[in-house]
UniProtKB/TrEMBL annotation:
InterPro entries named among the record's database cross-references: Bac_transglu_N, Papain-like_cys_pep_sf, Transglutaminase-like
Name assigned to this protein: Transglutaminase family protein
Sequence segments annotated as region (Disordered): 243-269
Source species, domain of life: Bacteria
Coiled-coil annotated spans: none
Pfam families referenced in this protein's UniProt entry, alphabetically: Bact_transglu_N, Transglut_core
Segments forming domain Transglutaminase-like: 159-223
PANTHER family: BLR5614 PROTEIN-RELATED, SLL1049 PROTEIN
SUPFAM superfamilies to which the protein is assigned, alphabetical: Cysteine proteinases (SSF54001)
Length: 269
């Protein structure tokens, strides 16, 4: 399947910016199940300073914000060919050893609520795909998908206690519980083509667990499936902070508003 993606993020600041740097994880790479046909990035109010690959094998674009601007626009557009491998990415690659994805972070560390759910899996000996799908289902039943109730800084335990959240929270909870079961797990940010519409409200998030004999396997907890040809992987990390599309800081101004325009649609080949 060929997917065309358009992603525009507009930052509106409350005063002229004195200085700012942003780290962009907005360039997908060719990997199992996806081939990048073309991808372009354009900037208004900022310029590219450096491009490199981070410890998670993500393509990073480091940009500086132009002094005195009150608006920055980051636009990406491209086409990606995708295929359905039932979520299997395969062998581990990147600069971090596999064991690094077994350690918890502030956003994934289980507390009482997560440990209560984990209890039903502690006696399960298998650490296979079937068990991980069962774990995904249990999380989805315990934490309903509700927009506008959590934030980028919300931890997995906080979302678990609240009983609601979004795809980011589901991925964090899954990562925290799978790691507690000695399964290396990572967070994934990317795009999902919805079947009922082209325009999306935001990018998507899911998780990948490392399974013996298969390597990395994806689990979209919010939708209860493994990623198929409708998904495009962009960045991975131990949690949202390491895979977020845009992170950075500015001096002299604060974000007043943030607007995201995103479309994902199938193209005829």
């Amino acid at each position: 399947m060929r997917l065309k993606i358009r992603h525009e993020t507009t930052y509106d600041f409350d005063a002229p910016v004195h200085y700012g740097l942003q780290r962009l994880r907005l360039t997908p790479k060719t990997t199992q199940g996806q081939e990048i046909i073309d991808w372009e990035m354009s900037l208004v109010g900022a310029k590219i300073e450096l491009e490199y690959e981070d410890q998670n094998h993500n393509h990073i674009t480091l940009v500086s914000v132009d002094e005195g601007v009150e608006e920055v626009i980051v636009s990406c557009e491209g086409e990606v060919d995708t295929a359905d491998y039932a979520g299997v990415i395969g062998r581990h690659a990147g600069h971090l050893p596999l064991w690094a994805f077994s350690s918890q972070t502030r956003q994934t560390r289980p507390g009482k609520a997560m440990k209560d759910l984990l209890a039903q899996f502690k006696t399960t000996e298998a650490r296979d795909v079937a068990m991980l799908h069962d774990l995904s289902s249990a999380i989805r039943e315990a934490v309903g998908y509700t927009k506008g109730t959590t934030y980028a800084t919300t931890s997995a335990e906080e979302a678990m206690e609240a009983g609601h959240g979004v795809c980011q929270d589901h991925a964090h909870i899954f990562a925290g519980l799978a790691r507690a079961l000695d399964v290396p797990t990572r967070y994934v940010s990317g795009y999902l083509m919805m079947n009922d519409r082209v325009d999306q409200e935001a990018s998507h998030a899911w998780a990948e667990a490392h399974v013996d004999g298969l390597g990395w396997v994806g689990f979209d907890i919010s939708n209860g499936i493994s990623p198929d040809e409708r998904y495009v992987r962009v960045a991975t990390g131990r949690d949202y902070r390491e895979a977020a599309p845009i992170t950075g800081r500015t001096q002299g101004a604060k974000d007043r508003s943030l607007e995201v325009k995103l479309s994902v649609e199938q193209q005829q080949q």
